[in-house]
Write a structure and sequence with these properties.
The structure is a single chain. By secondary structure, the chain is mainly β. Helices cover about 5% and strands about 50% of the residues. The protein is built from three helices and 24 strands. It has helices at about 65-70, 130-135, 165-170, and strands spanning about 20-35, 40-50, 75-80, 90-95, 105-110, 115, 120-125, 140-155, 175-190, 195-200, 205-210, 220-225, 225-230, 240-245, 250, 255, 260-265, 270-275, 280-290, 295-300, 305-315, 320, 335-350, 355-370. Strands 1, 2, 3, 4, 5, 6, 7, 8, 9, 10 and 11 form an eleven-stranded antiparallel β-sheet that branches. Strand 15 (about 250) and strand 16 (about 255) form a beta hairpin.
Length: about 375
Amino acid sequence: MNKSDLTRDYNMLKGPLASLGYDWWWHSLTGYNRKTGEARQFFIEYFICNPALAEDEPTLGQLPANKQAGKKPSYFMMKVGAWGKDKKQVHIFYSMKDFHCPDNELNITVGPCSLTETHMKGVCKVTEQEARDHPEYMCDAGDFKWDIEIDKQISFNVGYGANALFRKLNAFNMFWHAEGIKTMYKGTIECDGEIYDIIPEKSYGYSDKNWGKDFTSPWLWISSCNITSLISGKKLENSAFEAGGGKPIAFGIKIPRKLLIGFYYEGKMYEYNFARFWNNVKIDFDFEEGDELNTWHVNASNWNSRMELVLYCKTDEMLHINYEAPDGAKNHNRLWNGGNGYGEIKLFKKNGELIDHVKIENTGCEFGLYDGETE
């Protein structure tokens, strides 16, 4: 469903979610080293947690003193990082008292960091000493600065599952909206003293948001807008692929493994959305962790089409990305997250006729299970 809905990009931490909830705005993109031209994948995320519990200083849930006192986390976290050989995730924290965003638009300001629908800017720096001395930061050392224009071109709207009524009822533990499954970025990002230029046509960008009171396990995400037909050899400029989900919890009930999938292929959306039961949607997926490569398989069908995906990402170029839940638990400690994925998708009509066979590159990818879970 390629339908923009900017209201889903608003700050959602109202009512019960204000004291037991998170909301984040995620961006991933490719930059090019100004000196060498080398490509590198980056992510920039604006993350808020439990604003109603705000104190003058950010409350970090993994700090032993806060655990002992039974304090839930409360903060704005600026999360910035890079994938690849020198992979890293860097976090700085502010009190939610320093966070500002109106109710009726995306317009975040906190310290030197800002975000709107069309622009983001900020700095995020943690020294080696700080990273060592503060495990509660859940991060690496690094020094980032960015000033980037945002142009969201293709949306993936999951439909009624995140509509106003379901949001008001807090029907799901985790909500999702992807306003920019193809996003063109323009500007610069500086990483540890090196400047990377963000070139719109080669930024292969993505933007979405998640919010709710908890995460999901398993947790899967796959996204690419760098897509080329292996039949015609043509770069598909008006296409993007998106998949996300795991095991949703609706009104407190666990739903067996489900994904939301949208393949926007040259102007037409092929959607495999478990919530649209009338489309006879069937999906299965698996993930294989390997010493050299991590591998995803996703197969999906509906009443008029089906698709097969296989994706790879080099294990040593991926992070175990860190989040703590609003209740202070950190159950995801092996949440694989990467931006250098590559693979193939076959898209068929229901009668078996091949629509296209494509390769995907610069692919965002993720998979993880809670500690102790196996499926």
